[in-house]
Structure formats: C-alpha cells, structure tokens
Specification:
Length: 429
C-alpha cells in the first residue's frame, strides 16, 4: 500500500489515484472508497473504487451536500471516524445511510492551500467495522494531504478550461476579430498577384492569433473559429482588383469537416486560395484529398504553408500536390548570407518547377533577402519589406503603386546572367 501512496505525487494520473484509493480501501477492509470535490451545493465523485457496488456509485456521480455525511462532518456534527452508524442518530436520520446502506464510515476533508475544504476522501461499508481506529484515520489524513495538491491542480485546470471555453464562445459569437491583408508580389514583374487574409483579435487579454486559434481547438471550436475568420475576410473579394486573388487559411481538420464548401458557395473560387495551415501529422490523407476534390474541381487552388519548417509540411506537399508552395520565413530569413538556406530554397524551386507549382517566399524583411530570392528564381513573395499586413483600404493603396524593391546593379547583372543561362539550358533540352 505504501508504494502506491508514494507514487501519487510523482505520477498524479487518474490511474495512480485509482490504485491508491483501492489500496487504502483494501487496507481498511472497507467496501467503497471515493474522492469527491465540492461544486456549489454538490459533491462530485472524482475517483471511485467500489467493486461489486458499481451500480450505486461511479465517477461523475453527484449528490447534494445536505444528503451526505460531508457537510455534517465538516460542521462537526458527525465524527470523521464512525465504526457503527447505528450509534449516531444524525447518521441514521439520513436517507443515504439506509439506501446504500452505510454501517461504517471514515472520511477526511481535502483542503486547499488556505485550509478551505474542497472535497472529501471517504471509505464506507454496509456493515459496522469495529477494527477501524484512530491510526486508520491518520492514514486517511496523510493520503488526503498527498492528493490535495493534485486535486487543487485539477480544479484549477478545469476552471481555466471553462474560462477559456467561455471566452472562445464569446469571441466567435461577437466576432471579436478582424481581417488584415498582406500583399503578395510577383518577383518577376514586380506587380501584385494577390493578398493573404490574416486575423487580428480585439478580445482581451491580448493574445497572438496563433494562441487564439490554439485555444479554439482546445475548446472544441477550432473549425468554427477558422470558418468565421474566412467569412470575415471574403467580402474583400468585391473590392480587390479582379486580377488579384484572396488567400485564406484553414487547417486540415476544417477542410475534412466538409463545411468549407458552404462558406465559399456562390463565390468565384478561381480567385480564392486556401492555405493549409496544419502543422500536425495528418493521419488520413485519403480523407483530406477526398474533401479537397469538389473544391479544386470548382476552381479553388490549394497552398501548403510553412514549407521547410518541418516534416508535416513536406508530407502535405508530397501527398496533396498543391498549386502553391509557401517557403517558411525560417528558410527565407538571411537567405542572402546563408548558403544552406539558399541550397534548400534552390531545391524547392526545382521541385516546384518540376511539379508545376508556384513558389511564394514568406517573411521577406530585407532588400538582400528579396534580391537573393529573385536570383534563385522564386516567383512570388510577401513580407514586411514588400508590405505589412493592413486594413483593406491601406493594402489597396499599396497595391496601386509599384513595389519599392530596387535591385542593385550587381544583382541585376547576376539575375540577367542566370536568366540567360537558364533559357539556354531550356532551349538545349
């Protein structure tokens, strides 16, 4: 038994807690053991060991504090150790005593760091048990102290989860976010080709967009938030020049849900790109491919985001055969001075050319990076150097004027030379 008790603080899992209360129940010779927590006027079962009595008590069962022994023990009207309930009129007056029945009962409170009772650890049996002693009660108290921290942590996590869920529900219901738009430029013509819609949240506390979307997934509302973000961005299509596309973001889970088609219905899908933002390994690519078929048949193009950032994005590229591949900013950053990054980007340029995909470099922040990408043959790019995300009106103003990218004479010469060499190679082939 001691070994099981020692394991609880080191491994505070539900299984370890279950083993521990079973060990104490067996040690005391009792039939039922449980750990409960208080929620308002209810006591809720968090762990139960009751072989043969599962029909009477199980995890998540609840009862009024007025109907059980807990409130009376905390008030001092019943002792923590009762070897024979028939000796206590108050115990016998409770319907629960006869309903279970309860012949013997031993119970100690679980307390938080301020000494406030937050639950109980109880053992009981249908028959009286005269062997129960103060020593047994002390064992119960020691165990209650051991698991108290675990229960406090669990309750804190549950409160945080409820608060998070409520906040996410409010963010979605009240659309506490807007869309901003970042221009995407052709590095060959230095003309805009489209914009990417990005979400910005007004809800407090301030969180990055990634954090809001992650919380929505944890709350089971990830698909809902993603689709609402897409809905907020789509009206921009009416204002954008007709030769520009709008790129929106969605996870593989959202695509597989089948709800994207409803959101995009009756829109010019040839002007819409969906960037797959999933960073987790997709377990069922067949289902994802099947969900994409009607969208792609209707003209929608698919982009794989963050290429080069990890294994998942490379798997997406190989399995989904995207129309567009977006080089992650971790690959773009310092590409003008890092031979390894240039080598990897060159490989991606070759891959895109061989598969017919368009390559977009993300996170371009310096002139040197931009010029290096042009020299490598990357087709399109976006980033702060080319235009920060902004409100639609601001972005439209930027799109109306040519990009400020200016190549140095040396860069121009190298690019022209590379283009001549590549053209000769193509003609020779």
């Amino acid at each position: 038994m001691l070994k099981r008790l020692i394991a609880v603080p080191n491994d505070p899992s539900p299984q370890t807690l279950q083993f521990a209360i079973a060990a104490i129940r067996e040690h005391l010779g009792m039939k039922i053991a449980y750990v409960s927590t208080f929620e308002g006027d209810l006591t809720v079962m968090r762990a139960v060991d009751a072989p043969g009595f599962e029909h009477l008590i199980k995890v998540n069962d609840s009862a009024s504090l007025y109907a059980v022994y807990c409130r009376h023990i905390l008030a001092g009207n019943l002792p923590e150790l009762i070897t024979d309930t028939s000796e206590f009129p108050l115990a016998m007056s409770l319907p629960l005593t006869e309903a279970l029945p309860i012949g013997s009962h031993i119970s100690v409170p679980l307390r938080d760091r301020n000494g406030v009772a937050i639950g109980m650890f109880c053992c009981l049996s249908p028959q009286p048990n005269s062997s129960l002693s103060q020593r047994d009660l002390q064992v119960m108290r020691v165990f209650a102290d051991i698991i108290g921290e675990q229960v406090i942590t669990e309750l804190g996590l549950k409160r945080s989860a409820r608060k998070r869920d409520d906040l996410i529900d409010g963010v979605i219901a009240d659309r506490m976010f807007t869309a901003v738009f970042q221009p995407i430029w052709s590095l060959q013509t230095r003309r805009p080709v489209g914009v990417e819609a990005l979400s910005r949240f007004s809800a407090m506390p301030y969180r990055s967009p990634d954090a809001w979307f992650a919380d929505a997934v944890a709350a089971g509302r990830g698909v809902d938030l993603e689709l609402e973000a897409v809905r907020v961005a789509l009206p921009a299509l009416r204002t954008l020049p007709p030769d520009l596309y709008l790129s929106v973001n969605a996870s593989a889970t959202t695509i597989r849900s089948g709800r994207m088609m409803d959101v995009l219905a009756d829109l010019p899908l040839g002007r819409i790109i969906v960037e797959l933002t999933e960073h987790e390994v997709v377990e069922d690519y067949d289902a994802l491919v099947a969900a994409l078929v009607p969208l792609r048949q209707a003209g929608l193009r698919i982009a794989i985001d963050d290429a080069g950032a990890g294994f998942a994005s490379l798997q997406h590229i190989l399995r989904l055969q995207p129309d567009i591949i977006k080089l992650d900013m971790s690959l773009t950053r310092s590409i003008d001075v890092d031979p390894a990054r240039r080598a990897l980007a060159t490989a991606m340029v070759t891959f895109a050319r061989e598969t017919g995909a368009t390559l977009i470099a993300e996170g371009v922040e310096t002139r040197g990076e931009c010029e290096a990408l042009i020299g490598l043959g990357v087709q399109n790019a976006q980033g702060y150097f080319l235009g920060k995300p902004g409100e639609l009106e601001t972005t439209l103003t930027l799109l109306a004027s040519p990009t400020s990218v200016k190549l140095s004479p040396a860069r121009k010469a190298r690019r022209a030379s590379a283009q001549r060499i590549f053209a000769s190679a193509v003609m020779a082939g």
